Amino acid sequence: MGLIDDKVDLETASRVSASCFCRRRLPVVMVKTNFPIMFIVAITGGIASGKSTVSRVFQRNGIPVVDADEIAREIVKPGKRCWHKIRKEFGDAILLPTREINRAALGRTVFENKELRGRLNMITHPTIHRTIIFHVIKHLLSGKQWIVLDLPLLFETGILMDLIYKIICVTCDPETQLQRLIARNELSEEDARLRVNSQMPLEKKCEKSNFVIDNSGSIEDTEEAALKICNMLTESNQHWRNRLTFLGFVFAILFFIYYLNKIFNFLPEINIASRWK
């Protein structure tokens, strides 16, 4: 079980997870901005690598988790706008007798054809991203210190990268990943490999992440590593820096408006004393 942070040395990393294999990753994540006031942590990784196991650790410790896969399942329920678009694009052959989308049939169709996969993504991804932003704003307004986004395709889409403060990649050895996927989704080995190969290789995702959790071992080891990262982030004062930056930004705007008004006098004067006469 391994986890690392690109800003800690090997000695520090070994203290974070004493029983695990750790090595420094290149700090290649380019975080351009942080979301005002709170900060956002992304969990990513390959299909069936164990992201949900890590997400549950954060949830149990009071950290809100926004799951892109759950949103994706919700927006394609019968009658939803994306459901109608998918039906129009791929036909009734991908529907079950219940009118729900046959995810296995649709998966076989799109994972064998990159163009069709792109069409499906064009239908679902905008709605997924809008829903994620809605949840982010909701948690921001509720005063959360930080939240987690579970984003399997974070690097593949790149859409939400500018919001992310830290990235956690959950990985495991390829054979373990394949067998977990076959068992979980009841797929043939060929179909499972198509799904794995449709995503960015796990090694590349690890190189682009701040923390790496190797989920090849036991669930207990994975949960222990995730809990240590959770505690490290909770103890961070990044959210206070974000708050000060945000307040400074607001103050600068107000001062700029005040200064312009002194020159051009475009704001109406309010005589508070006269209102009480």
Automatic annotation (TrEMBL):
SUPFAM superfamilies, sorted: P-loop containing nucleoside triphosphate hydrolases
Gene3D superfamilies (alphabetical): P-loop containing nucleotide triphosphate hydrolases (3.40.50.300)
Keywords: ATP-binding, Membrane, Nucleotide-binding, Transmembrane, Transmembrane helix
GO BP: coenzyme A biosynthetic process
Pfam families: CoaE
Tagged with keyword Methyltransferase: no
Top-level taxon: Eukaryota
Cellular component GO terms, alphabetical: cytoplasm
Record's keyword annotation contains Transmembrane helix: yes
InterPro entries in UniProt: Depp_CoAkinase (IPR001977), P-loop_NTPase (IPR027417)
Gene Ontology molecular functions: ATP binding; dephospho-CoA kinase activity
Regions that span the bilayer: 33-50, 244-261
Family according to the record: Belongs to the CoaE family.
The protein's name in its UniProt record: Dephospho-CoA kinase domain-containing protein
